[in-house]
User: Fold these one by one.
Assistant:
Number 1:
Amino acid sequence: MTKAEVRATINGRERELRVDPWRTLLEMLRDDLELTGTKLGCEAGECGACTVLLDGKPVVSCMTLAADADGRTIETIEGISTPERLHPLQDEFLAQSAFQCGYCAPGMIMSAKSLLDHNPHPSEAEIREAIAGNLCRCTAYVGIVKAIRNVAAEGVS
Amino acid sequence: MDYVRPQTIPEALAALAQAGPTATVIAGGTDIIGDIKFRGFTPSALVNINQVDGLRYIDEDASGLRIGALTSIQQLVSHPTIVKSYTALGDAAERFASLQVRNLATVAGSLGRASPGGDMAPPLMALGASVVVAGQGGEREIPLSEFFLGPRKTVLQPGELMREVRIPALPPRSGSSYARLSYRDVLDLCIVGVASCVSLAADGTVESVRIALGSVAPRPVRAANTEAFLLGRELTEDVLKEAGDVSSQDANPISDQRASAEYRRLMMPVLTRRSLARARDAALG
């Protein structure tokens, strides 16, 4: 059976893998690369828990072929902080109690990061639109929107 | 399962021909991956066309708009020409699934899926669009009004590849709009969708009109009775109300998990009026 060659830059690191053609990006990240920060939720592209940035754009990795990561750049939740410093979004999510169970948080933060990367000063409506594809069952989104607004106001360094 | 990733259209056509009728093209994958994982779809081969050259573009010229088959839905959102001149398409794109899905899903893929409620079909039908299809024997251009046969069925033959969606330039004093109804604003298939495109004569009466309905029939359909009613009339509120009433003759919706047939029948006139009013305002503005 044919395998697909994947050469991708994941969180700044060049990785090379061979995967079954129908394997999803989510499976490759979690199972092959042990980057388990990205979560498996609905597995149907409808909850956003699996959101990663593919060439800077948020996608549902459960509905992306791993093979399509070839030649591309991927950012996951593991890549936005360093051992010394959390990303400002992570700091502010903590400060605003923007998660309870935490399951939506990685996908939510990646969507928020992508928004601020492209639009550093979004309106509240733009914030809500940017996270519209990320479901949160615990928080009613209040702390989440506040956290993103605060980071936008402070500026992401 | 075989896997091949052609780099050009001829390579893609050759790969499809070689792989046979049980192979599938995959682009955005937002439907096909679900089919493979959950719905028992076992294609003999995956022909991944994401790297095929020259299929991602939105080009405008005097003849109209040409959209490459691999153009993502997100690329349509906020595109200035689409927002201004092909508004119904922009309306549909910004309400399509979610941002994460729009960054993956392709215009051609959405049409090829032939979902009765798919959001790309009614606006493109109302705009008079056609699909350019490549095959090893040559190319053909298929008007969307002839493209859909039923749920998940189009006129595409095995080995054919959609290459481009073409929208003809609209006459002056034209406007279009897509109105859709769903429980959630995001990630929800529509209960009813109505796209309309009107072109007005100098005296403000309807010179031509196309109205396409989604989610009320096995495939997207034109609202023939409503269109006939509107020709030559001025789009006053009374005329819109009457058009809404006529619209119930244009489809016989079914009940499903999303809505009852009765509710759909009640909503068709509402969305028809809404879509026509916006299209009229765009045409006059």
Number 2:
Amino acid sequence: MSNNVIIAAVVAGAVGIGAGYALFSGEPIQTVVKESVTSAPAGAGTLDEVRARGSLNCIINTGLAGFAAPDDKGKWTGFDVDFCRAVAAATLGDANKVNYTTATGKTRFTKLAAGEGEILSRNTTWTFSRDVDLSQTFVGVSYYDGQGFMVPKSLGVTSAKGLDGASVCIQTGTTTELNLAEFFAANNMKYNPVPIETNSEAQELYKAGRCDVYTTDASGLYATMSSFDNPSDHMVLPEIVSKEPLGPVVRHGDDQWADIVAWTLKAMMAGEELNITSSNVKSLAGKDNKNKEINRLLGKDPLQGVSKLGLSPDWAVQVISQVGNYAEVFEKNLGMSTPLKIARGANQLSKDGGLFYIPPIK
Amino acid sequence: MTYFNNIWRNEKSREIIIQIFVLLCIGWFLSWLISNVDANFKALGKDISFEFLFIPAGYDINQYLIDYNNRDSHLRAGIVGLLNTGLVAFFGIILATLLGVTLGIVRLSKNWLASKIAYWYIEFTRNVPILLHILLWHGIIINTLPHSKNAINIADISFLSNRGFYIPKPLTENGIELVYLLLVIGIIFSVLFFKHAKKKQDLTGLQLPVFWINLSVIISLPVIGFFVSGLPISLEIPVLKGFNFKGGMHMSPELAALTFALGIYTAAFIAEIVRAGILAVDKGQREAAESIGLKPSKVMKLVILPQARRVIIPPLTSQYLNLTKNSSLAIAIGYMDLVATLGGISLNQTGREMETMVIVMLIYLSVSLSISAFMNWYNNKVKLVGR
């Protein structure tokens, strides 16, 4: 090829790129990414999309006992999974119409942003920058958690302040990393971080003795411990070093959808407050209750705005009858009857000494 | 119309037209990709910004070659990760080259057992994915070596446990300058002596034992200086303190596993390349060399390898590049390389996927191109000069 041809080729390439760009920079083309990404911020649409598909896409943990883990039949169960089911019950009337997509701590926000799910229900901590900078909407807190440390009892440590010089396994891509750095710096201690991608890998390294300590949210520590052969050989240290309000997340821009998810969570809590359980909800819905709030929640008396949400009047009946109220879901997945044996603690209604205070249903 | 036909029928101008058309298509496709990303980012309410590089990273890194703490910026965390990538690539390339060249030669050995062992090693190793090699080595180190409290004690100064390998760290004291000076003198002497010996061999055919003389000079001069200046090096011996060993030099199990896995895996490919290179040398060359009475080792070193090198270097370059790129699998075992720091934790803490990924890709691209440029330079140096 002569020099002239090369020059011509370069010029043509530049012209081609320029011409192509000029042609198309004016009108955005939105075919590569899934439709939902580009349509969602324009306003409503998520609910219609879910209805049209006939199922809800929910992003959950890759495996954390009690929160999202497959049972012996391969069916996903757990606290976060039940919340997906509750939203499916509210919007589609059937709690089983959920497709689950798993995500690691690292991939979850990208997956939500890319439209792989309508809800991220994966013990995600609500922080300022995740809410604001990543353009997501945290719709509420479903579980008040805090970061803790798990050690083998044989290590002879009784306080996190005695961990100077320890090797610490952490799940990467979480707020945990920053809390850990701050806690050790604040106490003038050194440590050796061993960053791990998923909970199961971290468990293996902890069991093999690669790390002295495993740190994550306390709920996750109890979940991990419950899956060990000898849970009693390990303990969670008393220090809780961070605030971790966990809750479901949706994309920015569709307020209707955010409201649906937020009020599904509140309906489950209101169910506990009003003593509506999965066993009595049908009979309560069928009669006129003295407490008019029950009537409004269950669609007996009109509740203004339900149609605006695009839901049928019996949406809360579907949620509580098919999935249960908050207390039922908590006890079934995490409570004293499960291997996790997590006490309600902060995760109770305010009238019982917890942090849940539900806005009036009116 | 005839004018157009003339242009179209002319081979040269037709070539140009087709190329312009293809380039237009490529240009259109690229601009479509860019504007699509742009539009989708706008729709998501995201912008492209690199400011995050200069805010404190907030996380700790377990292995750093330059000073680092969690108040340093994401940029510095990225550089720490890049150096860790470089470190493992460096060790890996050395291991892969030594092992690969040896295996390639052994594979052609007339000794049936040695040749078969090399054969099975190569076939097994290169047919198992690299990620499995990494996980296997990490698993072996973590699960078979004892806990740091029962570490394998080597002469009370080195310790081997599943937290890594600890060896004493030499600390220099006053008077060390003499040792350095004598080392430099030793090296200068060796270079001069090498030239002298070559000249002498060219003139008289007499061979001097260059290697042994140079080796003893380079070692003995600094050692003499070390004793004369009053033992200016002390050792910082690692001690078990609390949970882990403190002091000394430390090689983490992750670095060790990654080096072994990358080195051993790539060595299998290099062995095949070396074998191909040796076989590419006409067997008449070997016969001729043998017939003038050269020892087998000299035949290999002076006749076969210099010619084989020309065949070996281009594919060897791509193996070095592969090794460097494969080191990004480090994240599977928690070795904090570039992908784990800037492309992992920084990405996650800041949510800047596009920006971090673009930076990481550009860095890998420039590292690969640099290795490539170096190997091309070396290849040009050794290739057959046409007369």
